[in-house]
Design brief:
The protein has 269 residues and is α/β, with parallel strands linked by helices. Helices cover 49% and strands 14% of the residues. The chain contains 10 helices and 8 strands. Bound molecules: zinc ion.
């Protein structure tokens, strides 16, 4: 027992000695200096982080901005957001688009639906229509806003979801695939109705969307087909769940804006 106490005393004495040395080292350093990476920026000696990291730490505002931007980009990537929607906002969605004189919804009605969804008017949002009309852009804007507010987002297309589920059969981890999509604070399910449902497709979607319905979690669904076809593809049980949580559905048919407003690929090959 005594040996332990002596060892402990020695250890504490050593820590005190080193702390004193480190403190006088910090005191001898300049309180600020130019950032080595941004010479026009003043980096300030940060005492608390220095103690934690056991080395002097200078904080530069521009370096801090870069770290924040990198972390944000990583969150968007990890959530599964496609690269072409990672700069989307509701404000930079263009409402002035050619070919909007159809019997269907207009770009302005798409924006209004996105805003209502964001305000919590409805728990589910289905944006549907021709490829390139900006459904993904609006979903991206809503997903980014959720991520920036610190919420978890899962973005997947149906084919990848079914593939992930089937791959998980092998190591018996299908529950993890369902959980990941059922528990995200916001789920974006892309490419609804693009392909035929696999035999267990409705079961997989129902397992996820029923849990989300019970946990009052919002879901955005993106598809290419008009309402009736989308409903048929999803099946009665799922449509029922979506509707009872409140569901806004918009279908648009204006010209693709890909390569014209910067929210898609360029028009040159
Ligand atoms: Zn810097």
């Amino acid at each position: 027992m005594q040996t332990i106490e002596i060892a402990l005393d020695r250890l504490l004495a050593r820590i005190a000695e080193q702390s004193g040395a480190f403190e006088s080292h910090l005191n001898s350093l300049p309180s600020s200096q130019p950032c080595p990476r941004h010479p026009d920026q003043t980096a300030v000696l940060l005492i608390d982080p220095s103690w934690r990291q056991k080395r002097p730490v200078y904080g530069c505002p521009m370096c801090a901005d870069e770290v924040r931007a990198k972390r944000r980009a990583r969150r968007l990537h990890d959530a599964g957001l496609p690269a072409d929607v990672r700069h989307a906002t509701i404000e930079n969605f263009q409402t002035d688009r050619p070919g909007i004189e159809t019997a269907h919804h207009t770009p302005s009605q798409f924006i209004e639906a996105a805003r209502r969804f964001q305000a919590g008017d409805a728990r589910n949002l289905i944006l549907s229509g021709k490829p390139g009309i900006g459904k993904g852009h609006l979903a991206g804007a809503l997903a980014i806003a959720a991520l920036d507010a610190g919420r978890t987002v899962a973005w997947t297309d149906c084919a990848s979801l079914f593939q992930a589920y089937h791959d998980a059969y092998r190591d018996n981890t299908t529950a993890a695939v369902v959980n990941r999509h059922a528990q995200a604070a916001l789920l974006v399910l892309d490419e609804l109705g693009l392909r035929d449902l696999p035999a267990d497709g409705e079961e997989i979607l129902f397992a996820i969307l029923d849990r989300r319905h019970k946990d009052l979690l919002p879901t955005i669904l993106l598809g290419n087909q008009p309402a009736e076809i989308t409903k048929k593809w999803l099946g009665g049980r799922i449509t029922d769940r979506l509707r009872s949580g409140g569901c806004i559905l918009r279908y648009g048919e204006w010209e693709s804006m890909r390569g014209k407003d910067g929210d898609g690929a360029g028009d040159e090959f």
